Structures are given as structure tokens and as C-alpha cells.
TrEMBL record:
Domain Fido: from-to ranges: 246-385
SUPFAM superfamilies (UniProt xref): Fic-like, lambda repressor-like DNA-binding domains
Entries under PROSITE patterns matching the protein: FIDO
Domain of life: Bacteria
Gene Ontology MF annotations: DNA binding
Matches recorded under InterPro entries: Fido, Fido-like_dom_sf, Lambda_DNA-bd_dom_sf
Protein name (record): Fic family protein
Length: 403
């Protein structure tokens, strides 16, 4: 019987070769030595579960696992020692199939259709090249006040203007489409947003595990508490987003919900008073709390003036993360707050599900270090189009009530 690890390694090799992914990029993204990657792809190397999972992540296939278990469970399942229970693995790519019968476990790995993959614009490719340099060798960069001071709502646009308009129409039309159970779409969005947000912070759990944790509302560990807190925060936005003004208080309340079981009370929703650093970046956020408060007020004031909800969401997503106003939880807060203008406009909300973690990180670093939104534009557009497909009809009843 073929071992599960060998089956999955064969699947990864096929996917990598078919899509022309280089050994070098896999090594960079997975943290594995290039020689080891080459040996694995050639079928010559011995490897353990942790190495195989790193290879999956490096190939951008982590989200292609239709999740039924956590990475910890995968490590046990894929261990080189003979498993005590049989497993069944369904792997699909161009006819490649590898199966083992299982009594209680079913893992399915699939690849997104090629036409659904993210196609980078030339500007994004150039930014990737600029960020390919080791972070220690990239030039230091401070917070750029001019990125806010020079922005004129409804005159300037971070997104290409035609794209912002197109996505706004798409988001409103899809949200209003008739759907037999819009509340189910709402539940699906809350679950997937919360899970995706935790995943982008490198928390490891399956979507099925996440659903059980949210349904039980009884988190035991930090990653579980993070999941439930993200769910509470996005529920607050979905419930009150149309009523409450887009303000600093709304942002701070969102941070309180996100971090309520993860930080000391004195840090919840409060401007940090200590310096912080962004991992693997030479970006230096603002230091003084009064300066941070001033910029946070300006971010919210500018976003509230933006008429296009997609541009407003994109603006908040980048600038809340860029400001790093809180001691922790800034990127989580940026994803929650980005949905406020979408909710106000009855547009499809954005869950950030299925985004490649490396691509997301590069989108943030490009803006942090260079003020360049090129990668962020492509990531956001791709993610929003996916959300528009997944949550069609989410505001169906809301639109009927308004009409």
C-alpha cells in the first residue's frame, strides 16, 4: 500500500511542475533548503511530516486542502511511522489519484481552477522583485505622513478607478440577489472570515474545527480564543455597521472585540505607548501616541468621505494595518474595519479567504516599506471577487426592507 506521505509528495511534485513553480521560490516560501526541495521533487529525499507541510505551504497549496483537521493532526497522520489507523486521501490533479481507505478520516486535496488563480499585473511583478531582496538588506522606511496628507477622497484613488467602480457594482448586485436563506450566507461569511483571519495570522485549524469552536463558543486555547474573538468582531460590524458612524470609536471597539481574550485589559482598544516592530521588515511605525491618535483620526475621517465603498474598504485595510496603532492585533483589526464601508453600502463583505499567506504578506510589506499598493490591489481584487461568488444574496432581506 502506498504511503500517504508519498502520495501527497507526488501530488505536490505534479502541481509544481505543471505550474512552472521554481525550486528557488518554493525554498524561499517554505524555509527549506533548496537542495532538500530539489531532492523531494525528484523523489530522492526522506522527509518527515513537518517538512511535507512546509512544502505544501511553499507551493501555495495550504489552502487547497479542503480542511477536515488541524495541522497538528496532519503531522501525526503523515508521520513516517506506520499509522495506527488507516486513512483515505483523495488527491486530484490532472487525473492523479491516490487513495487509502479510512475508517474515520477523509482528507481531500484539490487545486483551484487555473482561471480562478491570481494573475499579477506587471506593477505587482515589479514590486515582488523589489521585495525579493533579504529584508535585512532592504532600506529602512519610516511611516509616511504624506500618504494620508496628500490623499483627496473622491479625487484620488488607491485602486484603479475603473476597478473600484466595477467591484462596487458587482458587490451590490451580488449582495441583493435573491437567495433562499440569506441568514445561512451570513453564518457562512462569519465563519469563513474568522477562520481566514486566524489563518493569515498563522493559526492552524481546519474550517470544520473552527465551526465547532464558534458554535460551542467555549474556546480553550489561544488560537481558539482568537477565532471566537474575530467572529464576535465581524458580527458587531455586520450588525451595527450601517447604524454606527465610521469613526475612531468604531475602530477601537473592533480592536476590543478582536483581542478581548488575548491582551491585558489596559491594551484593549487603546493606542500603544511603546515601540513595536514588524517581523522581517525594516519598516518603523510611528512612536509617539499623540501622533498615532492624530493619524487614526485622519484615517477614519478620510475613509468616511470616500463614496465608493470598495475604495473605502481598500483604504482602511491598508492604512489601519500601516498605522500599527495598537500593541497587537493591527492586521486583524484592519480586516474587520475594512468591512464597515461595505456593510454600509449593502455590498458583499470581504472574508479574505483562500489568500496565499506569502502574497498577503508581500501586499502589506509593499505598502509599509515603499508605499506601493500594486500587490495589494491584485490580492484585494482577487479576494473580493471570490467573496462575491461565495456570499451571493447575503443582504437580500436587507435590500427588500430598504426598497
Amino acid at each position: 500500500m502506498v504511503k500517504t506521505t508519498d502520495d501527497i509528495a507526488a501530488f505536490v511534485r505534479t502541481f509544481i511542475h505543471k505550474n512552472g513553480i521554481s525550486e528557488e521560490s518554493i525554498a524561499v516560501q517554505s524555509g527549506l533548503e533548496q537542495a532538500l526541495v530539489r531532492s523531494i521533487l525528484a523523489g530522492r529525499a526522506d522527509y518527515d511530516a513537518r517538512t511535507l507541510i512546509a512544502l505544501l505551504n511553499g507551493a501555495g497549496l495550504e489552502m487547497c486542502i479542503i480542511p477536515k483537521m488541524s495541522s497538528q493532526t496532519l503531522e501525526i497522520l503523515f508521520a513516517s511511522t506506520k499509522p495506527t489507523v488507516k486513512t483515505r486521501v483523495d488527491i486530484a490533479v490532472d487525473g492523479l489519484r491516490a487513495q487509502e481507505e479510512a475508517s474515520n478520516t477523509h482528507i481531500e486535496i484539490s487545486v483551484m481552477k487555473k482561471e480562478e488563480s491570481l494573475n499579477w499585473r506587471p506593477a505587482a511583478e515589479m514590486l515582488f522583485t523589489a521585495l525579493a531582496q533579504p529584508w535585512e538588506k532592504r532600506p529602512a522606511s519610516k511611516y509616511r505622513l504624506e500618504l494620508l496628507a496628500q490623499y483627496r477622497p473622491n479625487v484620488d484613488s488607491l485602486l484603479p478607478q475603473g476597478l473600484a467602480d466595477e467591484l462596487a457594482v458587482l458587490g451590490e448586485e451580488r449582495a441583493a440577489q435573491e437567495f433562499f436563506m440569506p441568514t445561512r450566507q451570513m453564518e457562512k461569511f462569519v465563519l469563513e472570515f474568522s477562520w481566514a483571519s486566524c489563518r493569515l495570522e498563522r493559526e492552524k485549524m481546519s474550517l470544520e474545527e473552527a465551526k465547532k469552536i464558534i458554535d460551542d463558543d467555549a474556546p480553550r486555547w489561544r488560537d481558539e480564543a482568537s477565532l471566537v474573538s474575530n467572529a464576535d468582531a465581524i458580527k458587531m460590524v455586520m450588525q451595527y455597521g450601517r447604524e454606527w458612524p465610521l469613526s475612531v470609536d468604531f475602530v477601537r471597539n473592533s480592536h476590543v472585540q478582536i483581542m478581548k481574550d488575548l491582551l491585558a485589559t489596559r491594551h484593549l482598544g487603546r493606542t500603544r505607548t511603546i515601540d513595536i516592530h514588524v517581523a522581517k521588515s525594516r519598516f518603523m511605525p510611528l512612536c509617539r501616541a499623540p501622533d498615532i491618535d492624530e493619524m487614526l483620526e485622519l484615517v477614519c475621517a478620510l475613509a468616511a468621505e470616500i463614496k465608493n465603498p470598495i475604495e473605502a474598504a481598500f483604504f482602511l485595510w491598508l492604512h489601519i494595518a500601516y498605522l500599527q496603532a495598537f500593541i497587537e492585533g493591527n492586521t486583524q483589526a484592519s480586516r474587520v474595519v475594512a468591512n464597515i464601508p461595505l456593510v454600509k453600502a449593502c455590498c458583499i463583505p470581504i472574508s479574505f479567504i483562500e489568500i496565499n499567506i506569502h502574497d498577503y504578506t508581500m501586499a502589506m510589506l509593499g505598502f509599509y516599506e515603499l508605499g506601493d499598493v500594486s500587490v495589494a490591489v491584485d490580492v484585494f481584487e482577487w479576494s473580493y471577487r471570490r467573496s462575491a461568488e461565495r456570499y451571493t444574496g447575503i443582504w437580500h432581506l436587507g435590500h427588500k426592507a430598504r426598497s
